[in-house]
């Protein structure tokens, strides 16, 4: 068209823009990026700030109040009693150590299991198999969390399939308890750990692996010196899921954990049966502090951009 | 790095074993949904179709599925809008407090559900003074679903760059036209992936839901928890779990197809 107009010597004038309100608004916004930013951020920040931050802050404040043991209502007088109870009570210390131990173990198991399968999916499988495997890993996510926990109760029960499978070899089901809790939690969060690691591995260019091989790097050396540093943020991102989801869980422990309690159970009982929200809030501070500490440590790795 | 043949073999066997462990409990659920025994006996003493018939007539279960779908759809829509806005703001602007905002988005999923649950429960009842209802569940779910949309969209935006949008603006398109015709089509599959995850997250959530649902609100997970330990109902729960897993193939397959098509066209 440009050639046409040039050869015929006439110019087609660009029609003037109609001066609509939308256009004027668009021009104003283009000229003022700050205004654009404010408009974009106001809705989500109002939502998260008003709903979530206010709720969290209110919960923390509640931890400083007490419950009148006679009427069961909350007395709004400031006290550190709940916090001191939680910090010094041996029950809370034992349960905290147990919960953190379980969460760490679950995370470790998930990472160790996720690495080989994610590597196979990203670097070994053909594109067709890759697609099938992603579906195979994603599908269990849609089976209800409760049903899966209950399925493990069934698998690990005295007459369950686990006993049936290992009995011929002289094995025995671990029964219900902490080992069963660790197994079930690791099972439940496994897809959440596999997916980020798989995505991280997909971003490692094959050419780097080949370069490492060409330069004489053996398989292990390549994995440890080239692949691992590159997918480290993805591993951390996966670990945030398994760690924090395990840290607050109380339902799985109820289903397969026998009589064991985790922090989540203590919070739950104090909110429900004991009707002591201030104490529950004080207990809830423990996982909040742990998670904030964890996030602060891993923030530098860039993991938060890999969630 | 070339993987040797034995190494590939070992890796595929390990992958196979992991998949076996992933599917073992699901298989137990499947078989138990046909078992004549209502307790957890293996192998099942006999097979029956009774539970499948009763599951499709169970009004409690069907109502619960509808409630959950309704909550998950609205929560997903809200989180799609809010998540897209936040990721555009964080990716396209540098401003004071940017890090704090990205932490704020992650927080509802990084903090254990029970904390989000009691915090929101307390806030709804004592600060805002609203009755717990289906709306409070939707608000709570949307809050922790934002992060899945955010992560998908911001990863896409990082890859896209702004050259197409600048070209569109140079050619005279307004902000809204540019978003509608240039930015949005490029984000579509990321939005779909994030939306699917958000939907799944909301559909399966139990802990936050327990604390934010009104008395009459029964989502599917709440219904399942109510019925899991009732011997006459547990097998029906198994049937529903099997149906859900089978149905989940559809959205996952669609998402995969779209992702695959984009890879080819790029």
UniProtKB/TrEMBL annotation, chain A:
Q: Which residues cross the membrane?
A: 45-67, 100-120, 132-152, 176-199, 220-243, 277-297
Q: Where in the cell is it found?
A: Cell membrane
Q: Which InterPro entries match?
A: MetI-like (IPR000515), MetI-like_sf (IPR035906)
Keyword Cell membrane in annotation = yes
Species: Cryobacterium sinapicolor
Keyword terms = Cell membrane, Membrane, Transmembrane, Transmembrane helix, Transport
Q: What's the name of the protein? A: ABC transporter permease
Q: Which SUPFAM superfamilies match?
A: MetI-like
Q: How does it sit in the membrane?
A: Multi-pass membrane protein
UniProtKB/TrEMBL annotation, chain B:
Give the residues annotated as coiled coil. none
> Is this entry keyworded Endoplasmic reticulum?
no
Membrane protein topology class: Multi-pass membrane protein
On whether Nucleus is a keyword of this UniProt record, the answer is no
Task: Report the principal subcellular site.
Answer: membrane
Q: What is the annotated localization of this protein?
A: Cell membrane
Membrane-crossing residue ranges in chain numbering = 12-34, 64-88, 100-120, 132-154, 190-216, 236-255
Its domain of life reads Bacteria
Quote the SUPFAM superfamilies the UniProt record gives: MetI-like
PROSITE patterns to which the protein is assigned, alphabetical: ABC_TM1 (PS50928)
One matching Pfam family: BPD_transp_1
Q: Which UniProt keywords apply?
A: Cell membrane, Membrane, Transmembrane, Transmembrane helix, Transport
Domain ABC transmembrane type-1 as annotated: residue spans? 65-255
- InterPro entries under this entry? Bact_Polyamine_Transport, MetI-like, MetI-like_sf
Query: What does the similarity note say?
Result: Belongs to the binding-protein-dependent transport system permease family. CysTW subfamily.
Recorded hits in PANTHER family, A to Z, give:
PUTRESCINE TRANSPORT SYSTEM PERMEASE PROTEIN POTI
Q: What is this protein identified as?
A: ABC transporter permease
